[in-house]
Amino acid sequence: MTPRKDPDPGPVFSALADPTRREVLRRLSEDGPSTLSEISAGMDVTRQAVSKHLVLLEEAGLVASAGDTRRRTYHVTPGPLGDAVGWIADVGAEWDERLLRLRRLVERRTR
Amino acid sequence: MATVRLPTIVGRLRPNGNQEVASVEEHRRIARRIEIKAPASEVWEALVDAPTLSEWLGAEAELEPRDGGAARFTFPDGTRRLGIVESFEPPRRLGIRWREVSGAGPSLRIGEPSTVVFELVPTTTGTAVTVTESPGVLAPDPEALAHR
Predict the structure, then answer these.
(1) What's the complex ipTM?
(2) Which residues on chain A are in Cβ contact (under 8 Å) with B129?
(3) How far apart are CA B104 and CA B101, in angstroms?
(4) Residue of A18, A105, A109, A111 to mutate, interface with B, max B Cβ within 10 Å
(5) Residue A35 phi, psi (nearest 5)
(6) pTM of the model
(7) What's the per-residue H, E or C state across B13-44?
């Protein structure tokens, strides 16, 4: 996956908002590359539902698949998680600096 | 200053339901608070006076200090943000929605909008300033607001 300059973290947060998708991601993280049947085994939702969740996870760039349709395996690609967390860290740090400058400026003026 | 006529923007479609996005967007909210030893009126002035705003924001700012007013920001790296004043309640609350724009003509790129809200609360020693920034995908488009 090539890094994008301005990644949009929205799809990542959306993908992570659903408990079933988090469970799918957790299983893939722990078990390594798995097929749809392996992921679905023991889950409360249908195979079809898991399949849909995998599509959303793939769209968000959190999961990738390999192999042909008979034996397709899915694995975790955690890169975009950094983008999502990065948005919060970057924007937060910007405001930290700006507010300190605002305080200095206002307190200097009113002293 | 004339109201900025923002280019037409086609909103990004999300693949899933709104309810989920709403809770998700909540996670992306930045909130910061700082205490300033000055009256709220002084802090307010620093928020809405463009030269002063430019000084502390770290971007060259133009701002029409009124509800629905236009705002433009040019950052040192050359990126530009266009915005609109969404709430203007001196000296308590200032809300600006902005989004990054780059390029021109067919190559124009429009970033995801986000809303910045400043809230000023008088304290015994001065003013508590809270700033929040959150992606504004659920709120109306600046284009729509510009014509209300």
Answers:
(1) 0.75
(2) 99, 102
(3) 9
(4) A105
(5) -85, 165
(6) 0.61
(7) CCCCCHHHHHHHHHHCCEEEEEEECCCHHHHH
